[in-house]
Amino acid sequence: MKLKNPSNSASQTLTSSETRLLVRETLRISANLASAPPPPALSERPLIRDSNFGGLVEDQFVDSSFRLICCEEIDGRRWKYFADNNSVKTDGSKKFKKNSIRAVSLQNPQTPFDGFKAFITSYVVPEGFPDSVSPAYVPYMTWRALKHFFGGAMGVFTTQTLLSSVGVSRNRAVPGAVAINWILKDGAGRVGKMIFARQGKKFDYDLKQLRFAGDLLMELGAGVELVTAAVPHLFLPLACAANVAKNVAAVTSTSTRTPIYKAFAKGENIGDVTAKGECVGNLADLLGTGLSIMIAKRNPSLVTTFALLSCGYVMSSYQEVKSVVLHTLNRARFTVAVESFLKSGRVPTLQEGNSMENVFSFPWSKHRPIVLGPRFKDAFQDPNSYLAVEPMFEKEQYIVSYNPSKGNIYALFKDQAKSDDILKAAFHAHVLLHIIHTSNQNQSSSRRQQEHDLSMLVPTSSDLQAHIAESYKMVSALYGPFKNKAKEQGWVMSESLLNPGRPRLCQLV
Fold first, then answer.
1. Could you tell me which of 43, 77, 36 has the C-alpha nearest to residue 60?
2. Where's the Protein root UVB sensitive 6 N-terminal domain (predicted)?
């Protein structure tokens, strides 16, 4: 019979107890760990780009070995400049080591797409965009790009037609005759450019109207060039006429370009705005030319293609001109501002006034209801009418009257008339026009269809004097508030943009 060893049994019992205790403690610790919140994760330190090392380094490394001395921002991208902390004692003072500055970018390197986008933007957008230009810059450039796109596309077809008509493609003319015809064509265009340049100041005060008229003239020239394909024996006269039209359009575009870009520039960046605007136009022209070359290889219908491209060109040109927001008041915008003020008591904003401007009122139009600075013989045929209204304007430097035989309102200026006097006379003329229209509407409903035809408004002498007297009172009360409200809206009034005539009334000696 074997006896159990007591010491061995106790050892086994103790081992079992310790095992159970260990299991309980493990479960308790696991439960505590499961219920406790997770320990805070170590924040990942941002990687920054060291321009000296040419790679990304940790901010902790830089802070430990370098000292931050300056921060910099370039177009939204930030940089930090560090210097070596291991200073050198010089003359008893500690100084940083020479050439120890390191520039560190706080952004990741640009992707190829972002780099390409920045490259293109540097060519087509002014520096500081959009804060460096007015809000009207983007729609104007959009329509300008479309216009140049259609213009470049049309240029391929017109050039192809000219070459075919002159006989180059079919060898119907000797090279000498071809060269002479081409030189004569270009010479006629230069002559037309010089003649049209005498328009001078019209490019300033009728800027939008002339710009749109120039684009229409460009289309007319392109159309005449296409006609040469039908009548090649009339190449020289047709080509000369077309080139004259296109060169006149080029003068108009060049002369009106600077005032438009000046309206967009917010600072002394007119050169930058002009350069980027021309780059946009050239880029769109190249795209249109490339597309037109591919289309021309398929020999499409010349008339249909030209009609579609012309519609796109004219529409883009119209929208381009309408998107320009000018601060100055020429005759068209002055008319819009005064009529709005007389009807509603408020002056339109810059955006409203420019959008309501009529771009089809060309400078050479003879039908103008208001004439500023006319000859005395045009304003008065009856001396009694002059003697009747002259005392009313004794304190003014102008005289406003209505000539029933010509159906126009005339504002004559005295020799002492200043800039404000001319503006006031123009305002007075519009007030008188408004009174005559209102009086005509009240007299007969049958004339409402003719309310804009002043030749049908024939008031008597007594009615005319009463209208002028009434207009004088209205101008005395309303001209000051009109000027103040116009300035509040940002309008700049200048008599030079109203294009007054040069005749002046002198005192009798």
1. 43
2. 14-110
